[in-house]
């Protein structure tokens, strides 16, 4: 069972990496091997709206405008289902034959790579939980940043201790830095930690990053310490996927999108 062990000495590792990835410009950087990125993303379930063949429903560019079709990738199964329920009301013909399909974040990443640079390639856009976006925005405001809206898909990580390092937990023989998709689940873990180590309670804080930036860092920066990062999907997502019987699992999104009307 995983348990808290210490504050990581990798102070500011991810924050500085995210910043450097934006400012890198022409600076040459080494990418983390693709297999390692896929391994890190594989345990995270995400959700698309797809037909029985696994082809995702897409939004096409407005008629006469250039651009690739884009499929929405929902972080929350409940959000995906709410979108589908709304679609059934507004456009029952389009909603016919499609359903919420769980896929691995690694599959989405791989499909995105396969379609990169193709004129008619399928793009993917993450649809974060609005509740978590609100939590992320609130955290940024509390830290003194002047923001109106959080950009991207929030990830929450704990920092604390004298040097404000990242909190690590023991996973087997390895100390890892957990990053949560749901702030409340990290907070529940921190509440237990504060009871165990009340002397550190006042130093603990939650930092918010975004998934898109983290993936960019993994692609551009080959730092062994990045291997400590573990993405923690919400309990809701895990339980939903577990509730699906193996024979009833649906196919992953294919390269060919299901047709959708032009905007």
Summarize the structure.
With 263 residues, the protein is α+β, with helices and mostly antiparallel strands. Helix content is 36%, strand content 24%.
Tell me what the structure shows.
The protein is of the alpha+beta class and 263 residues long. It has two domains: 3-41 and 144-234, Trna Endonuclease, Chain: A, domain 1, CATH 3.40.1350; 45-128, Trna Endonuclease, Chain: A, domain 1 (3-Layer(aba) Sandwich). 36% of the residues lie in helices and 24% in strands. It has helices at 13-23, 34-41, 77-90, 92-95, 105-115, 130-142, 183-196, 211-220, 235-243; strands at 3-7, 45-51, 58-59, 70-74, 98-104, 123-127, 154-160, 165-171, 174-180, 205-210, 229-232. Strands 1, 7, 8, 9, 10 and 11 form a six-stranded mixed beta sheet that branches. A three-stranded mixed beta sheet has the order 3-4-6. A two-stranded antiparallel sheet has the order 2-5. Helix 2 (34-41) runs antiparallel to helix 5. It starts with a strand and ends in a 20-residue tail after the last helix. Mean pLDDT is 79; it is low at 1-29 and 250-263.
Q: Which key terms come to mind for this protein?
A:
263 residues; alpha+beta; Trna Endonuclease, Chain: A, domain 1; 2 domains; six-stranded mixed beta sheet; three-stranded mixed beta sheet; 9 helices; 11 strands; 24% strand; disordered N terminus; disordered C terminus
